[in-house]
Amino acid sequence: MTAQLIDGKIVSEKVRNGVAAAVAKLPGKPCLAVVLVGDDPASAIYVKSKGEKTEAAGMRSITKRYPATATQAEIEAELTALSADPEVDGILLQLPLPKGLDEASALACIDPLKDVDGLTELSAGRLVLGKPGLRPCTPTGCVIMAKYALGNDLAGKNVVVIGRSILVGKPVSLLFLAENCTVTIAHSKTADLPALCRTADILVPAVGRPEMVRGDWVKPGAVVIDVGINRLAAPEKGEGKTRVVGDAHFAECRETAGWITPVPGGVGLMTVACLLRNTVLAACARRGWSAPKDLGA
After folding, report:
1. DSSP 8-state assignment for residue 189
2. Closest Cα partner for 162 from 193, 124, 128?
3. Which terminus of the chain is less hemmed in, N or C, by CB atoms within 10 Å?
4. Number of H helices, E strands in the chain
5. Residues 186 and 239 both lie in one domain
6. Residue 62 exposed, middle or buried by CB count within 10 Å (0-12, 13-18, 19+)
7. What is the C-alpha separation between 134 and 223, in angstroms, rounded?
8. pLDDT tens digits along 39-59
9. Residue at 104 is within a domain
10. Active site residues
């Protein structure tokens, strides 16, 4: 068996097209504001991509840039001002912040109604309670990709999530639970992790350990949604060169799984698409517009 690919380019494009179609029917243009602190190259690339895709979907994009020397007070003042700005519908604080800045304190300054990354305490609480709200982008993308493989009805599927982070592990578990799946969260203290993984219809590695999940950890025909993005040395490409791999050993797992996301080209592409989706939902909720029923997912 060779697993079918869940191509992030195809699935994310479907979501972005749905967003663009919805925006075209709205009475105004939603606006996404991104705050970038410091000069991390990867963050700069992500922010540029988010801005381009926001505008390509017919929305307005604002980027607020601060040097790594910016103070906590400056960042929090910016987030507070954006929260109060009636023209801004969504706010994203690009993480990680430079050392010395308190991410939790900064995130607390974001109006939960504009929290398009779903990271404020109120957003997290509404997710736990099953109340409507903005959901974290990467976990939402994981669920959309699982539905791409298995169809919209995931009820009764056994899901094993490896990792209990507040960014992915915990929220993705709750999102699958909301789909009526049976969910197990595995972590560093889990006994016989390979055996547990073999019970999963949907396996979600999200721990940041390169190629940890081997082929014999995967139930035949299972769906593997690989959240990991890790860089390994690739001397065969030249001195100092690297290659990107996931938390699953792609070649081995593809021989056992029914469906698998590639890395790169998988879950990462969904994060921006779901950010745009959340911006539309936030704008509709704030402005009293009718929320579109189909946003490509």
Report:
1. T
2. 193
3. N
4. 10, 11
5. yes
6. middle
7. 25
8. 988 788 889 989 999 999 999
9. yes
10. 50, 94, 117
